[in-house]
Amino acid sequence: xxxxxxxxxxxxxxxxxxxxxxxxxxxxxxxxxxxxxxxxxxxxxxxxxxxxxxxxxxxxxxxxxxxxxxxxxxxxxxxxxxxxxxxxxxxxxxxxxxxxxxxxxxxxxxxxxxxxxxxxxxxxxxxxxxxxxxxxxxxxxxxxxxxxxxxxxxxxxxxxxxxxxxxxxxxxxxxxxxxxxxxxxxxxxxxxxxxxxxxxxxxxxxxxxxxxxxxxxxxxxxxxxxxxxxxxxxxxxxxxxxxxxxxxxxxxxxxxxxxxxxxxxxxxxxxxxxxxxxxxxxxxxxxxxxxxxxxxxxxxxxxxxxxxxxxxxxxxxxxxxxxxxxxxxxxxxxxxxxxxxxxxxxxxxxxxxxxxxxxxxxxxxxxxxxxxxxxxxxxxxxx
Length: 383
Hints:
Its main location: membrane. Its EC number is 2.7.13.3. It is a multi-pass membrane protein. With 383 residues, the protein is of the alpha+beta class. It has eleven helices and seven strands. The protein folds into three domains: 2-127, no CATH class; 157-222, Signal transduction histidine kinase, dimerisation/phosphotransfer (DHp) domain (Helix Hairpins); 232-379, Histidine kinase-like ATPase, C-terminal domain (Heat Shock Protein 90, 2-Layer Sandwich). The longest helix has 56 residues, at 130-185. The radius of gyration is 41 Å and the shape is elongated.
């Protein structure tokens, strides 16, 4: 563990190669030699110039009485320390400059390593100053690129799954339609009753295909980023009451009752009523279809702060826990047979989720032995 920690710390520091250390030493030696030559040249010039000597002695005469000493103007006590300070500063600046260039070379080397396809690698160096900003920016750019690549892969995978699911759901009824129409085409029926049976079956299967195509069109439409929202002000409680009344007859046939609880009795909000009706139609249809065995469908509408919270509940069989997280995935069905008789297209809840998201809200599901609930949060006002 200690060895690994030391290795990580070593990675965070840039370790110079022997060649780079030699370059630094050579840089220092050359700089020192040049500075010494420059110092000697300046000293010779100062010592040999009569004009400079006059200026120095005139200045010395003016201030000698104040300083009460000649040591201040001595070359060995004044000029040489200045040379030393300047030389050290120049040497430090050149070595640091060369060291920064070496750090930059290491960063570029790491960047080339990442560019070769090692997208899980990040530049590990902990630096200071502008180079630290460069390293942070590069790592952030790589993170963004990797995220974009992953998103692109998910999109491609999603497209493949979409094509597979659509092909499966269209092929099944299409095979039946072709089969029964083929029987009619080949006169493989004995009487008028058989003919009507075949045409009726083909008609039902064609309606299933149309339902799938309509849902698929609706799904792709609401998933568009620029889909228009026709916002109007309406009463959510009143809208739910009307929808519940529309489903009462079907609920009676299934031996179920629909109850609406609104608090307060009137909840004004902004939204696209046409799209929201599609959401609640789907939720109520699912409650009637999959809530068989239950007796009650309860719709609670509440105003909570700046949101309208709508819960559509039924007391039918619970949804398995493993299925709850996948309910809003397109083409997902709790029953795995994918039968058109027992399930829809599998796009209804995905469409509902997209419509709610367009309104700036969210939807989720809960289920236990008592209630299966679909809970929607919608903002009351939209800018």
